[in-house]
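ok so I'm stuck.
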Amino acid sequence: MIQSAQTVLQDLHKGIYQPIYFLQGEEVYYIDAITEYIEEKLLTPTEKNFNLTIAYGKECSMATLLTQARRFPMAATLQVVVVKEAQEMADLKNATGQKLLLHYLDHPQPTTLLVFAYKYKTIDGRTALGKALSKKNMLVTAKKLYDQQLPAFIKSCVKNLTLTITEEAACLVEGYIGNDLTRITSELHKLRINLTPGSTITHSIVEAYIGLHKPFNVFELQKAIMQKDYPKSYQIIRVCASNAKEHAALPIVTILYNLFAKLLILHQTKETVPTKIAQQIDVNPYFIQGYLHAVQNYTVHETMKNITYLHQADLQLKGIDSNLNDYQIMKGLIFKLMHP
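replied:
not stuck anymore, here's the structure
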């Protein structure tokens, strides 16, 4: 059985753990959270000196790793062995390394907790190794949260910081940052420095500490396009192009494609209650007015043309029938979206 990362974290806090964890998936926040908890909480500072081993996938062989895992702890009841960046471990991709690990899965050292942090990817569940890890309850998949799950995650983070947050403010945090859980927690921790315990985070605080200093993000780009604000949209694209590593073009196109797909649904809906309309397009009710205004800015014909433009841009960014760079493609796309 594949465990969820949230369940594993809860069990760890209760002192319940398995001899091996193979942490995999796209949501690196949970992989990091589980790894950090195991590193920091299961051993005392003195025990860590002799019983905590950190290895890295590129530099680690399976034989050496398992030799370390099979040794007994020194002056402690447990030793912890962590493989970071395990997706880079060559022996996890060949038959010899997998065979060694399969043998260890059948005979794990009971006084060792072995952790593989296999980020961004998932191991093939059809392989013998994938099946064995799942069967022995050692496979943990960290999935990206859905948009509707983000407010609850934000509120949970805020609660852990001994603060509270309004519904409106939680929606704004989601809107400004998206579903990057690592960034959400980082921004909330920074915000905590400026607040006293027990304070309530309001929308004005979020705008001041998170939104105001991050004016050029995808959330703001989407908002500008919904308002048909071409100068601001073009300005944001220029800023994104100057930092392509943080603002890659393809994910932006995907977000804008989803925007116009939602607008197409709104053009066809007969629902009049805002909260029910929000459910139809899977957005937080706090943001529904922006979408309803956008429907007035783009006719159904314009909306369909823009979906076509976004599909074409997606192909171009993937190198199909285009010699333009990403910035040129995005600049042309924004112009066409504003002038369909």
